[in-house]
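User: My instructor asked us to take a sequence, write out its structure as tokens, and then describe one feature of it. I'm not sure where to start. Here is the sequence I was given:
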Amino acid sequence: MEELNYSEIVRKIVKENYQYHTQDSQYETQLILDSERNHYLLISLRWQKEKQDYGCSIHVDIKDGKIWIQQDFTEQGIAQQLLNLGVPKSDIVLFLLSNLYLSLK
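Assistant: Let's start with the prediction itself. The structure tokens for your sequence are:
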């Protein structure tokens, strides 16, 4: 069986979501793909009446051979997209609180 390249898979998912987010011209959308340190983020920001509006819709890390979903405000869900691309449930971690995480085992 072919070994999955998690970095490539996560980059693909985040890039696809970036294409969707750039349709909203009110926000500057930033795509952050750090393959060297395995951090992948999609953030949006704008200034409105001297107030900054900032949000992180996707934050995924790869560590210890697992994909950690730190933040996910996508419609379909990063976990489901990973499963659809063949990533085993045991390699997906949903990070919910600072010291608590759930694996999809």
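For the description part of your assignment, you could build on this observation: The two ends are 21 Å apart (CA to CA). Try explaining in your own words what that tells you about the chain.
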